[in-house]
Amino acid sequence: MVKLMDQEGRNIHERIFRFALLVLRFVRLIPQTIENKVIIHQLAKSVTSIGANSQEADGSESKKDFIHKFLIARKEAKETNYWIRLVCAHNCKNLELVNQGKKLFDEGEELVKIISAIVKNTRRTQ
Q1: Which of 1, 73, 118, 125 sits in a 20 to 30 Å window from 92, CA-based?
Q2: What is the number of structural domains in the chain?
């Protein structure tokens, strides 16, 4: 198995896994309104898909498939950030939720950058 590392030398799969756990814990803080239930569902789906696709990339049979799976992971990371932003904007009076959401958004942005670099570097070696 390829050990993909982020800038600090941490395994990217582990970092994505920790991010997903934090987002799933964040979801528990979101008030269960009709609107928020839709957002919660979408957020949980997109954040878990990041890790699933990065894991699939590790099992890929070609560089093309590897790149494709990480492109999906990046798309899902961007979608996750959209839902986090929406949670914060819709629940702006809940400062604890907003503050935690901002931290998660920042980590999501970092993951998008790291995944983009993985794709770029892999394309370069194709």
Answers
A1: 73
A2: 1
Q: What's the rounded mean pLDDT across residues 13-26?
A: 98
Looking at residue 10, its pLDDT comes to: 64
Tokens of 88: 């914060």
In a domain, residue 15? The reply is no
Which amino acid is residue 22, in one-letter code? L
Q: Model pTM?
A: 0.90
* Cβ atoms 41, 80 nearer than 8 A: no
pLDDT tens readout for residues 25-39:
999 999 999 999 999
Is residue 91 one of the residues assigned to a domain? yes
Non-local CB neighbours of 126 within 8 Å, separated by 6+ positions: 63, 64, 67
Question: Are 90 and 36 a contacting pair, CB within 8 Å?
Answer: yes
Q: CA-to-CA distance for 64 and 79, rounded, in angstroms? A: 23
